[in-house]
């Protein structure tokens, strides 16, 4: 039976990217979690979290822990609810699926994902691949002139929610033995920021969801950490920002207070004091200063936060060294940055400065930041889903039911 569509899902620890291969420019992006306001019974699941008007003091449940699904019931519910709106009048039984899978995935977890997709969600067929291989496909389409892309070769840095991976790829396949991982991702950086701002400013230990948003708005990667730390001292710090916390009504996420807004608030307070009237209630404000660059700094210097691991540049160099020597030149010439943390301003520039001394002089080093690091893997998966290769690579429901796990062996060939 000819498929009517192929659904593409990039399921990460922090978010789900879901869309149709026929509409590759418009994926849904929503949290891979469920949330409940403290003291209330209503639960917001997955895509429904985008419509929340109050994001304070949320109780979060995530189906993914440390990069792997641990709550399949919640994961299935999140995906099933989003699929209803995506498919419209179509049935999943007439659609195929391309699904990302974790690096170095366990066979039992792969089988559980296939079982969920084919037996429970009802798809007609499925193909699974690691995000790095899919992201490189999209990068190759955007930059077809690169010799490394012609060979399906590159070093993909996946700065994700749970971990940060350096992943060598050749012939559109990851090289598992050469993958190197840093046990720091967006989640750990958010937790680190919570500790810093709670100690220095406002207690935000229960505001994980909001702090993720604030981190994305304010953090950047320093190009000279020592100089920026000196500049951050005192009231004249160029990095100091005031973040007005949400009120749960009109201002859902809060906002960075501008200089004009701060001056107006100070003038109103002084006028009210002179008139002798009751003081206006103050908006809660979170003060952020050197936290803006010290939080992402942990990815380059994990020892600063007590982790006995190499930094990102050293992890990338180790991944290249673990690959076959004949691939080193291609890998160094095609380093692709993906994942949410890669969007941090200054990330690419700092990585180049730290990586260049580790690269042999006779090799070119080129680092590319994906046009949208979060959607890069999804777009690559959408390319594959729309290509003639999909029917050959996919495992159908009939194959799964007749051959079981043996049907998945084609993905290893």
From TrEMBL:
SMART domains: ACTIN. Pfam families: Actin. It is found in: Cytoplasm. InterPro entries: Actin, ATPase_NBD. Keywords: Cytoplasm. Its main location: cytoplasm. GO terms for cellular component: cytoplasm; nucleus. Signal peptide: none annotated. Belongs to the actin family. ARP6 subfamily. This is Actin-related 6.
């Amino acid at each position: 039976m000819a498929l009517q569509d192929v659904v593409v899902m990039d399921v990460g620890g922090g978010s789900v990217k879901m869309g149709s291969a026929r509409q590759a420019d418009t994926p849904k992006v929503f949290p891979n979690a469920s949330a409940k306001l403290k003291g209330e019974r209503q639960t917001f699941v997955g895509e429904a979290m985008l419509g929340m008007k109050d994001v304070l003091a949320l109780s979060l449940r995530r189906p993914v822990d440390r990069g792997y699904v641990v709550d399949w019931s919640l994961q299935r519910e999140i995906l099933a609810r989003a699929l209803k709106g995506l498919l419209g009048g179509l049935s999943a039984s007439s659609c195929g699926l391309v699904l990302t899978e974790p690096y170095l995935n366990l066979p039992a977890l792969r089988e559980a994902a296939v079982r969920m997709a084919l037996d429970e969600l009802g798809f007609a067929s499925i193909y699974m691949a690691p995000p790095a291989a899919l992201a490189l496909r999209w990068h190759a389409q955007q930059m077809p002139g690169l010799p490394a892309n012609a060979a399906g070769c590159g070093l993909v840095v996946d700065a994700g929610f749970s971990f940060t991976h350096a992943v060598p790829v050749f012939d559109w396949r990851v090289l598992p033995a050469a993958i190197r991982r840093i046990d720091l991702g967006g989640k750990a950086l958010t937790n680190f920021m919570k500790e810093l701002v709670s100690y220095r400013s406002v207690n935000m230990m229960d505001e994980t969801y909001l702090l993720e948003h604030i981190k994305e708005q304010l953090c950047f990667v320093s190009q000279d950490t020592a100089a920026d730390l000196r500049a951050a001292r005192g009231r004249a710090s160029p990095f100091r920002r005031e973040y007005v916390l949400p009120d749960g009504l009109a201002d859902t996420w809060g906002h960075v207070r501008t200089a004009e807004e701060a001056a107006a608030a100070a003038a109103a307070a002084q006028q009210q004091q002179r008139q002798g009237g009751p003081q206006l209630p103050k908006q809660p404000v979170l003060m952020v200063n050197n936290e803006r660059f010290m939080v992402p700094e942990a990815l380059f210097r994990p020892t600063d936060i007590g982790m006995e691991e190499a930094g990102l540049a050293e992890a990338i160099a180790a991944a290249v060294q673990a690959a076959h020597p004949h691939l080193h030149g291609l890998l160094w010439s095609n380093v692709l940055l993906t994942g949410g943390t890669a969007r941090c301003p200054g990330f690419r520039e700092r990585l180049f400065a730290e990586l260049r001394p580790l690269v042999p002089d006779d090799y070119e080093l080129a680092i590319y930041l994906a046009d949208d690091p979060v959607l890069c893997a999804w777009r690559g998966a959408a390319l594959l889903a729309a290509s003639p290769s999909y029917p050959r690579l996919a495992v159908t429901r009939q194959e799964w039911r007749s051959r079981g796990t043996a049907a998945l062996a084609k993905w290893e060939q």
